Amino acid sequence: MAAALPPIQSVSIPHQSVRVPVLSKKDTLQENKVTPVKQGIAGLTDLDIARHRQSYLHNTSVALLEEGYVNSFIEIFSLVESQKMQRELAGKDSGHYYDPLLPAEPSKLETLAKHLGLAEKLQRQGKLAEVCSTLDKLAHECKQTDSWLSDHFYKKSLSISELIEGDEGRKLAESHKNLGLMHEYQDSLLQAIQDLEAYFKMCQRHGETWHTDHGENIMDDACEQLRRVYTKYADTLQTADPVAAIEYVQRAYDVIKLSSYIDKQAEACYLLGVAYREAKEYKTALKQFKSYHEKAKHNRDDDGVIHACDAVSDTYQLMGEFMRAAEYQKKILEASQRADINTAYTKACASLGGIYNRLGLYEESVTYFERSNEDSTAMNGGVSNVQFGVANAHHQMDNYLDHVLDYSVQTDLGIASFKDEHDGTINVSEDCTGSQDGEEDY
């Protein structure tokens, strides 16, 4: 029988106790998932990494919700969805279909979140006037690139301004003005008129106490804003409906007369004359142009005087009253010489030359065309030379016909010599006529 093996004795090996961590499944996955970003930048948290992985719209929404701006989050989300819907409704043939959407424009999202968050904070504090100012500022920033956003925020500002008490409606008036200017920018002129008329009526009630940021009477500003948009709308009607165009130009004139802008009043008066002239109501047009002329004279405005006289002269020519037209062109000569306006002087000389040429007064026509030709070489090129040449030809033709009608051997010889030499005169010899001077120039 084999010998029994001796018992194994335990050997005590000195060591330090080592704690082996027990990893959960989640910890194991996180341990194995080390990103290059986390390895490269010390102190980068898991939240930082998540922000890089999510869209800017998602991060902006989370940030707003974390700060408690729920309404701002809802509004941005609604705007994003509305933009997508409008894009689909417009279709691929629309010029704006391929414009970038809000989620693809981080800077715009940041701007929206910043201003809407501030507006929501101010609204909670009951500072409604400051809310309107914040929204107006946001609308102004969006105006150039996203007019639809600008329109949205101006309308929101208007609705909030209706809740403000204690400012006599001042903020509401400003909101109507801002929205009206926005509609004008979008060429929605009838909507612009509606809002600017509301602005005008409110300023009319408080014109003595309200002033602009520059210290001017706000009534002047309201009159000018409405005058401008009335005039623009009248321009769109000029061809299709001249009568309606006159109505809006008349409104523009009536409203600007309530302001202290003398120059704008004169301009509106002139445009009213133009509208009547386009409608072929020449007598009424003359009345307006002459009123404009008197205003310009009163203001010592030589440019205005020239403008008015030219309009009166053109209207008289349309009526067939050419001598009266010439009178006002001569007034332009006086005003342009007094103000040293060479272009107006040259143009008036050319106009007088044309008027006298039409009346058959060729000598006067040549005189004025010659003056125009002397001053207009650099400005008109060969145009003035041609006009002078035509008038001179008419003058020579008149002279020539006189000799033809007064036929004799002597005049026949003079005409023949004129045709050969083309020196501008028809000479009749002394031997044939008995003249003491040797020859006679016609």
From TrEMBL:
It is found in: Cytoplasm. One of its GO terms (cellular component) is cytoplasm. GO terms for biological process: cilium movement. This is Tetratricopeptide repeat protein 29. It holds the Pfam family TPR_8. It comes from Oopsacas minuta. InterPro entries: Bac_ResReg_Asp_Phosphatase, TPR-like_helical_dom_sf, TPR_rpt. Keywords: Cytoplasm, Repeat, TPR repeat. Axonemal protein which is implicated in axonemal and/or peri-axonemal structure assembly and regulates flagellum assembly and beating and therefore sperm motility. Its main location: cytoplasm.
